[in-house]
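Lab notebook, bench 4. Continuing the backlog of folding jobs that were queued last week. Each job is logged with the same field layout so the records can be merged later without manual cleanup. Today's entry covers ATP synthase protein I, a 117-residue chain. Filled in by technician R.K.

JOB TYPE: sequence-to-structure
TARGET: ATP synthase protein I
LENGTH: 117
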Amino acid sequence: MAQRDELERLKALEDRIAKAKAAINPPRATQDHHSMAQVGWRMVIELVSGLGIGAGIGYGLDVLLDTRPFLLVLFTLLGFAAGVKTMLRSARALQAQAENTAPHDTGAKKGDKTSGG
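JOB STATUS: finished
OUTPUT FIELD FOLLOWS
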């Protein structure tokens, strides 16, 4: 009997804590123009950093080995490929995250005449 009362009190306390947390931290908007700008800048930075790192490595090796533009061009292209690969990986991760946070049931079902599908 006492154990049941304790469980009920704990459940009531958990409910109050959840309500307090919900009041303090309102749900975040799913998408706004600032978050899209951040995503865009992230993609640009990933691409440019790949190019820069590749060019830096290529130039350094060219200076050390005295093979001027060959390694610079080669590593710049490799840096570009690495930047594009990183950019695509980030885009896939963001897309998967967006699909997981999107509402599952919007009211329109596949094959419904009003949804166009």
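OBSERVATION: The chain has three helices and no strands.
SIGNED: R.K.
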